[in-house]
């Protein structure tokens, strides 16, 4: 997947959404966007479609979910420009 497009999707989806303040009793948070930053189709991805959402989640959980999603896509032979 095009790294520049992924970065553009992330910038749009998380732009203007304040990150929750750091709390020593809470895990670090990262912005999670939907549709996924790796979305390619013209109807997917925040940089191409304004119908998106984002939420700050536990950063470790968010990273793990992304790894599992990528492994699933590889196992199902989802190609770069496939719509989903």
Describe the structure.
With 84 residues, this protein is α+β, with helices and mostly antiparallel strands. It has one domain (3-15, 26-75). The chain has 2 helices and 2 strands, in the order H-E-E-H. The chain has helices spanning 3-14, 59-75, and strands at 29-34, 53-58. It has a two-stranded antiparallel ribbon. The longest helix is centred in the last third of the chain and has 17 residues, at 59-75. The two termini are 14 Å apart.
Task: Give me a quick take on this structure.
The protein has 84 residues and is an alpha+beta fold.
How many angstroms does the end-to-end distance come to? 14 Å
The total tally of domains equals 1
Mean pLDDT: 85
Count of β-strands: 2
Largest sheet, in brief, is:
2 strands, antiparallel
The arrangement of helices and strands along the chain is HEEH
Radius of gyration, in Å, reads 14 Å
Strand content: 5-15%
Helix content: 25-40%
Individual helix count: 2
Biggest sheet: strand arrangement: 1-2
Low-pLDDT runs:
none
Morphology = flat
**Based on helices, strands and strand pairing, what is the structural class?**
alpha+beta
